[in-house]
Input
Amino acid sequence: MALRRKAADPALTPEPISAVEIEERVPPSLRVAGAYSWRILLVVGVVGVVIFLIAQLKDIVVPFMIAILVAALLVPLVNLLVRHRWPRALAVALAMVGTLAIVSGLIFVIVAQIRSGLPDLQDRSIRAYDEFKVFLATSPLQLNDAQIQSYIDDAFAALQKDSQALISGALSVGSTAGHVLAGLLLVLFATLFILIDGKGIWAWIVRLFPRRSRAAVDGSGRAGWVTLTTFVKVQIFVAAVDAIGIGLGAWILGLVFGGFPLVIPIAIAVFLGSFIPVVGAVLTGAIAVFVALVYLGPFPALLMIGVVLLVQQVEGHVLQPLVMGSAVKVHPLAVVFAVAAGSFLAGIPGALFAVPVIAVTNVMVKYIASGEWKTNPAPKAKDLVTHA
Output
């Protein structure tokens, strides 16, 4: 006989739960965490897409960002000349030509003095190398020429391997001479147009946004520009401190140990190299140490290493975090991690642009979030790009 299926007891059948009841059973803390989570993921996704696009267009983005930094340096000078009744075209030409002349003059001084002292430097380098080999052969190490050459080859191989990231970062600006030339021309043309009609360019960018958000975008951009000009001024101050510190240390060592050649070109090289994070400081400091080793000996070279490390520590742990951080309204710890993250993601260009990008973004977001644009849509900024 077939078994009959028992009828379900209505008292034991669970009632369906509505979506509203499920939502009410979720703890409020979990609902808030979930709301934050998907929004954070969305922001991270957008940032990732932006970074990917920048990486693909780096040959255009990097020169344009360099042009913005140069323009932030020159705009105050142009506006000063315009306020003194100079024609804008003449003020822009003077700023551009003067900057190129100053940079070219500094490079010419470096090249000229190095060329004049190069024969003596080569002779002393060979002599120092021979003396060093004799020292190693007569020392307890008892190294012969083959062993010394093997160690030198291993050191160069390790240096090449460890510096591959830095070299690739440097080549990201332009891997060939054609790319470098094209990037230089882009920098010059972009800087020129920003100085001539920066206000018109910014107004066109603002008009791309919806009408209701234009006041917020315009005000935040102006506030970010003021922060950027402050950053450039402080960066020049930091580079000057590096040049004075290392140059003064070399000059003092020369007084004590009988003369330190090439002090001026070394100081100028340090000043120019300080604008290139990581690589600039390492290369210019290595030049000073090498000259001290060749001309003065091992002990003065160790002292020169101490001077370079002291200056770099002051820059990295005092000037950059404290002076730069206070000037651009970014916490010192954020400055340190911004430079580290920028160099990790994009090498030298990332380290160069990390602090200004973080500083400008921080100011713009704060300005929009505070609602200041509702009552103060155009913050005062004497260094903004304006028409004559």
Notes: The two ends are 105 Å apart (CA to CA). Residues 199 and 386 are 6 Å apart (CA to CA).
